[in-house]
Amino acid sequence: MSPDTATARKAIKTALPEKAKKNLYKPYQTPRVIWGLISFAVRIIGFLTMRVHLRGRYNIPRRGPYIMAANHLSWIDIPIIPSYALARVVYMAKEEAFHSKMGWFVRFLGAFPVKRGEADRQAMRTADEVLKKQKVLAIFPEGTRSKTHTMAKAHAGLGMIALRAGVPVLPVAIWGSEHGLKKFGAQVTICYGEPVVFKPKGAKMTREEIESATEEVMRRIAAMLPARYRGVYGEAVEVAEQNQAEQKQN
User: Which of residues 185 and 170 earns the better pLDDT score?
Assistant: First the structure.
């Protein structure tokens, strides 16, 4: 190949438009029929391989918008928790998941990425848009699976989204899922709590309100869990239970 030919090809390649990159912050809308089939399949697999116990399913709103916030023990949590909801769910997932071998499936489920350890404004805007479209947003506030099988400190993004959107937050507690892939017939319990709505007191939300809303949701999740799973929120649950006991006595 002559130098002139190589130069010409390079020039043509440079002139051609690059293939447009997919906007991961624009969630794929999984067809309703396919979403229903996936949810049904997840429930069947759960029925055949585990012993799934549901509590408070009547607390799940029939339709969006609302936020589904849960603790995270196993990757099984991702498909099984929302499989009992009637509406399709849009996931907020860690950015790394989109660059893994299962990245295509994560996107197919209707997820969008969030960058952990930093203020991801684009993810916040996407979350707002999802809720404005009357959809359900699923979040694991801890940001990753717990290796110790106990609750870790949550990221404040949950509180910010809840305050900005003003929609119900459905706290969800799951335990036993950490044994789902290791033990046939593992006992898995999913508890859906009572939805709670947060509103800022003034025209603008404060950092204290964001942290308070996040802590309140996590405390509610922890209160539904057995004590050994509560982790950093164990003390907050004990204090709340003591206050309730004192109020009843008075």
Answer: 170
Whether 130 shows a pLDDT value over 70: the answer reads: yes
CA distance linking residue 80 with residue 191, whole number of Å: 12
Domains of the chain, with CATH numbers? Answer: 22-234 (3.40.1130.10)
What's the 3-state SS for the chain? CCHHHHHHHHHHHHHCCCCCCCCCCCCCCCCHHHHHHHHHHHHHHHHHHEEEEEECHHHCCCCCCEEEEECCCCCCHHHHCHHHCCCCEEEEEEHHHHHCCCHHHHHHCCCEEECCCCCCHHHHHHHHHHHHCCCEEEECCCCCCCCCCCCCCCCCHHHHHHHHHCCCEEEEEEECHHHCCCCCCEEEEEEECCCECCCCCCCCCCHHHHHHHHHHHHHHHHHHCCHHHCHHHHHHHHHHHHHHHHHHHC
- Among 21-25, 130-134, 161-165, the minimum mean pLDDT is found in 21-25
Answer whether 39's CB lies under 8 Å from 83's CB. yes
Identify which of 156, 144, 28, 133 has the alpha carbon closest to the alpha carbon of residue 78: 144
pTM equals 0.85
